[in-house]
Each structure stands twice: as C-alpha cells, then as structure tokens.
C-alpha cells in the first residue's frame, strides 16, 4: 500500500500530459512537495492537498475518489484530517497546501536552529567528556501519575495497565514515544540531571523526527505567569523572543510563531515547573490541564506534589523520577576525568583513595557526607571541575570532617571553588584562536554575584542584556537616563560653535542639555520606568510597505507622544533661550520675559510639527527580521544596534529637515500672530535643524531603545559603580565559554539554579571587590 498513492499520482499526471512543475503551479503546492509525494519520500499527503491536486488534474468523480482512497490508505489510521481541532485555516484566497508547506519549512528551520543551539550547550558543559553521566529514572509514585487509561488514550471500557517507562539517558526519546498521550513529567531534586535530560531529549528527538512531527523547543517555564497570559500565547511570545524571525506574518494571518503553536508543530519541553513564582503553581497546572498539547515537564518532586495536592495531576501525563548516582557510577566516571598518576600503576588516579574510602568506610562521617553530596550530576560535575580539571588539587580533602562537618558545607565548598577554578589563569588558547581573558576570581565572583542578585530581584532565571538596568530602582533608572542624555545633548550642542561664538554656545549647551534630559527623563518615566518594565530589543528592519493595523496604531501613539514632547521642550527651550538672549543684550526683565514668551511659542510650534511626524515615522517603517536570522545574546545585541543605527540614519535627517524647513515656513505667520519681529536666517535654520536632528535622535535612542538602555546602564552606570566590568559583553561571553553561564536563545542563564542562588546569597560578602576593573587580556 505504501506506493499506491505515489504510483497513482504519477499515472494521473502523465495521463493529463503535465510536468511536475506545471501540476505544482496549477495546484498551488511546492514542486518539492509534489516530487516527495510521487517518490514516496512524503508519507503525509493531507486531504486538502489531495483535493487541490485532483482539481488541477481535472479528475472525474471516480478517479478523484480513487486518489483520495489511496491517500487515506497511505497515511494510515493515525493521520490527522484537515478538520482536526487544532487545524488553522489560511486566509481567504490562500491555498491550504501553501499554508501548511510554509509552516513545514519554517518548522524545519526551527528544528535546525534549536538543535545547533543545544548541541553547542551540551559541548560547552563537557557532557561527553569522557562520557555522559548515567542519568537513570524510575516510575514516579502513582499519586503523581494520571490514570493509565487516560495516558493510553483508551475509549471507555478499554483494558489497560501501566507502561514500563524505566530507562537511561540515551533511551529518553524511546520512552517518550511509548506514551500515547505524549505527556511526560520528569521529577528530580536539584542537580539530579533534569536539564541534561531535556537537552538530550531535544537533540535525539530532532534527529529522529519526521517532517510532519512537532519540533521540541525548551522553554524555561519559571518565567510564565498563568494569571496574566494564556499558555499558547506565552509559548508564542517566548518563541518570538528567542527566534525574532518567527514574528513575521504567517500565510494564515497570525505570526509564524503563533501558527506553529496553534497547529501543534511545537513540542513544548517545559523546564523548571518548580521555579514558577509562589502561588502560581496551581493555576499553571490548571492551565496546562486545559490544553491537550503533548509536552514534557520537569520539576522538583515536592513542588509538583504540592501543586497536585491543590488541584490535580497533569492530565493524561505519565511521571518518572530521576534516580541518584551510585558509588559504582562514581567509580566508573571520576577516575576517567583526571590524568593518570606519574610513576607506579598507570591506572591509579587521585580519586582512587577517595573511592576506596567510600567503599570500605561507608559509615564514616567523611564518607557519608561525600556520598550524600555526590549523588547528583551537578555536584559530581563541580567536584570534577575543582579537583580533576585543576592541577595540584587533592580530592582527599573532601573527606576532611574538620573542614566540612556536613553535606551542606561540602556543597558550599564546591560551589565556591567552582568559580575560582573556572577563572584560574590558563595558558592555553581559547576557542577563537586568541588567549583566554584573565579575570581575577574575586572580581569575577563579585560581578557574577551582582548578576545573580539582579536575577533574584527580578525573580527570573533569564539574564537579558536589555534588562540589566531593571534591577535598579525606578527613580534611579530615570535619573541616570536623564543625566546621560543631558550630557550627551549638551556636548552635541557644542557643534553650534560653527555658527555662534563659543561663550554663547556654552551657555546654550548648559541650557539645552539639562532641559533635554528632563524632557526625555519624563518620557522614560511614563513609557518605561512607571510600568516597571524594560524596553524590549527591536527585532525590526526598515520597510514602508506591508503595514498592519497594529503598526498604524503604534504610529498614532508615537505621533501623539512626539507632539507632546515637542511642544513641552520647544516652549521651555524657546522661553529660557529668549530670556538668555535678552539678558545677554542687557534688556530689561519685562522685555526679556516677552522675548522668552515669543521664542517659546515659535520653538514650541516648530518642534511640535517636527517631532510628531518624526516619531510616527519610526513606527511606520518597522517590519520583522528575516526568519534565517541567527540569534544568541550577542547577535541579538548587534542586530538591535543595527536597527537603532538605521532608525538614527532615517530619523535624524527627517527630524532635522522638518525643524529647519518648519522654522522657515512659520517665521512670518508667527511674527504676524505675535506682532514681533524675529531675526532669522538660513544659517539659523540649518543650525537648529542639524543640532535638533542629531540631539533628538541620540536622546530617543538612549531613552527608548533597548540598545540605548544597554549603553546607559551596562556600558556606563553599572561599570562606573563597580557592579559590572567595563567590557560587559566580553565578560558574559567569557563566562559562557568557561561554563559558568549557558545560553538559552537570546538570553544567558546560570549553569544551574543552585549556583545562581549561592552567588546571590554571597553577593553582599563580595563588596570589597566592588571597584571598577578591567579584564586583563
């Protein structure tokens, strides 16, 4: 039966005298899709696609039914018709085959992107050096598992029994595929290997998936607030954040990310259910139970059990629990992670005496403490980093009960020394061909402690570069933004020495800078700080056509904000400028105030008529990035920087020209309205337009763009106050290369939540290192 549909389709095409290209064009399907159906490579002809082909071939009723019957036989009983519950209809006039083929192509690109990303992460963690730790699991308690009839998706009255779900790390995909519901909960205590398991699951699943199967994507579910956003909308938002190209419109109307989620082409791998904020575990579990999406969920056992006790188990989900490592596992793994001893038995390593003590004296306090600690992959990895990867360190120190009287003290010791070990000076070269950057371990601990403290304050594991200033008080953020903009625009105003004397321009700069800082500071407060949010990175390019209703709405909002800022700044600047001119020309106070009022009206009108359209232009010219954009924290930073530069190139000349020509056009009407005589020239218009365009664009970029806020806080304020080093990007990338941080899409995360918690708690103790410093190259 497997070749019946392919042979029949080829025969009907030949009878119609069509080439593959001709039939594909008439049916509105891709040539690659048609070729796959005829060769048998595509085993999933949808009913809609078959109907389009039948129409294009001009088949009669009998031949049409024959072709449809062959398609149904080929796809089998598990194939899903187009009228399934999660089917998304394309927009009117858009062939369904084109819609689904487009989503299939996008899903393929997403699969390649996530596989490449997590393959790098697995290599970064040295998971395969010398071999992956033996992560195993067993059946979770029955009270944490749904009824097996529901897990098996059996009809009423069907016989059922439990599934055998035990296995090892390399069997996780096979175990998951044995679950008919496609819903699995993985429970494990901190450091037990949940993240290693989800990474291996994603890589093995992508490797074995068919084109029509969903793409596994890892989501850090701890950042989800189920009371504020639905599960599907949250998945869409996270996809768009980590893969900006998926914000592009889909053929079906919504974004590509939304279409992938709604059509079931994304398999959510939800890591960290236990990290959801207190009080939200129950609504989160209820929200997950309201969907039928297949998923894999990880959690600590206690948090998941508490949520189950408050509501119910995850519907139709089986549950497994990760097992502890054994002494046999340690005996196999640890000796292979360190060099052989010099002289004597070549098979002997520094771990042999420790392992012998654990076997021969299991009830001794030192052995019991160490055996308790080394039951999780996290602590074994830390012990390997501190003692196997560091020359001259003797792991026998771990048995010293005078130094470590409890397992907790041992864990703190390993966490503390991991940072010192990761940042020891290395003579070898880094992956980029150059030497590793030398960083003082104490300074690194302080800077990492601040980052951990920052994430704890924000209650998130995601280190987003555009939110590095969000951990500060809102008033501090506003004042720092206003101060930086004030200094920047004040310096820009010195360009006016090309037109006016230096003394006058210095006085004008002392006026313009603080005034611009105040205006932009107020705008920042109402648009960003008051909402206690951060400016998200702009994943847009410049495009005039293809605007949406949302874009036009954003254009109107920007126009109103720009007009309001223009009239406030224009009148304030004009009034104070006029008074300054009057005082410098030794006019009386009433005359100086009159000049100030006239100048205020004039400049207020000019800047209002210029700022509104210029601000609206920014929203008008935005469009999503291409789907093939490479995304990681650094590339997203560079992309946003390019977007800000593009906006600057467009906005600065537009605003400057509007100001210059607007001033020339308004000089006579305003003079007649106010009954005053304004002294104006072409040079005055050029000066005002040039300085206004340059200063306004810089102020907007620093105040209301993600890259500008990154520059203000991560590149200026936080290094200036000693919280971070000056080369922040180099430090973060170096921490990633050393295995302290990991990358999860467009954000960094600490290697493990336990490490983040430890650094956040010890951050105040590292205060003596809080002095600005540089990374030594």
Automatic annotation (TrEMBL):
Q: Report which residue ranges the record marks as coiled coil.
A: none
Which Pfam families does the UniProt entry name for this protein? HTH_31, NACHT
**Listed SUPFAM superfamilies:** lambda repressor-like DNA-binding domains, P-loop containing nucleoside triphosphate hydrolases
Question: Where does the sequence pass through the membrane?
Answer: 479-499, 511-530, 559-580, 600-621, 642-667, 673-690
Species whose genome carries this gene: Streptomyces blastmyceticus
Q: Which SMART domains match?
A: HTH_XRE (SM00530)
Q: What is this protein called?
A: NACHT domain-containing protein
**Keyword annotations from UniProtKB, A to Z:** Membrane, Transmembrane, Transmembrane helix
Q: Where is the composition biased (Basic and acidic residues)?
A: 75-89
Q: Give the superkingdom in one word.
A: Bacteria
The segment annotated Disordered runs over 74-93
Q: InterPro entries per the record?
A: Cro/C1-type_HTH (IPR001387), Lambda_DNA-bd_dom_sf (IPR010982), NACHT_NTPase (IPR007111), P-loop_NTPase (IPR027417)
Gene3D superfamilies, per the entry = lambda repressor-like DNA-binding domains, P-loop containing nucleotide triphosphate hydrolases
